[in-house]
Amino acid sequence: MTVTHASFVTLPVTDQDRALRFYTDVLGFEVTADLDLPQGRWLQVAPKGAQTVFTLSGPGMGDFEPGSTRGIMLVTIDVDADCARLAEAGVSVQGPDDLPWGRMASFQDPDGNGLMLLTEAHG
Questions:
Q1: Closest CA relative to residue 115, chosen from 88, 82, 98
Q2: 8 A C-beta contact, residue 78 and residue 119
Q3: pLDDT of the residue at 123
């Protein structure tokens, strides 16, 4: 095997414009693709400099159930500051909690897709 990284993760959403506002305005991601294709809009976002992007998959772009994605871990250098920013934006956040592998919190996007924030433990 010579896999080097994941290209994209699909996040099924009901409203791509609403999801786009959340991922760019709240999470600070950048748009990496926004194309109109025959089967629908191909919309991708990512943290600046990331290798893996997130496809905000709307109606017609596959047999995906909005809100069904779980366990997406986003690594941050300051989980507490990011949790405060999410709360200010009206996002319900669980945590952060100290765990053996770092300090972690969880939240959901507007469609209910589950994401986590992690500041990794050092040492």
A1: 82
A2: yes
A3: 57
